[in-house]
Amino acid sequence: MDATKLRERQAPLKTQYRDDPNSAVVTLEADGELDGSGVACRVQTARALEEAGLHPATGGDGTQLCSGDMLLEALVACAGVTLRAVATSLGLEVSGTVHAEGDLDFRGTLGVAKDAPVGFRSIRLTFQLDTSASEEELATLLKLTERYCVVLQTIRSAPDTQVEMRTDTAAAASN
């Protein structure tokens, strides 16, 4: 896709969102099914049913996806798509790789040390690009990629998150 085609696709959306800001708010969803046969959760993706389980550092056998890895994969995917879209808009030719890595202290997850955090303590995102773009163009590309990458901004901003639990069995038992 070239810059013209991308602008043509996005122009009516941008106009709609300026005219009706509420139409720009879309609720994305993810669903999983708790596996009764082990410590796992089947996650429905757009393409397949994937099974997430324990990381080997928490007792898993490594045959299932780790949700921490999936978070980094989502970051890589979003950052890569965003970088390509921004590069296309700027008329820059880029290729290369995107890499994310994060440090976890599994003592927190396993409840071994109360002072150990649960979750990533740091995440590093690296673009290794093959391009003839100037340093100034690359600085703009990076700045805009950071600004518009949904997953990166979500991680950085720690949005308000609610958690609730519902049970069907409790409701059925009280009837």
What does this 3D model show about the protein?
This protein is an alpha+beta fold and about 180 residues long. Helix content is about 40%, strand content about 20%. It is built from 6 helices and 5 strands. The chain has helices at about 5-20, 65-90, 105-110, 135-150, 150-155, 170-175; strands spanning about 30-35, 40-45, 50-55, 95-105, 120-130. A 3-stranded antiparallel beta sheet has the order 1-2-3, with no helix packed on it. Strand 2 (about 40-45) and strand 3 (about 50-55) form a beta hairpin.
- Write down the secondary-structure element order: HEEEHEHEHHH
Number of strands: 5
Strand content: 15-25%
Main sheet record: 3 strands, antiparallel
Gyration radius over CA: 21 Å
Distance between the termini: 57 Å
**pLDDT averaged over residues:** 86
Low-pLDDT segments, ≥5 res: none
Total DSSP helices:
6
Can you give the helix content as a percent range? 40-55%
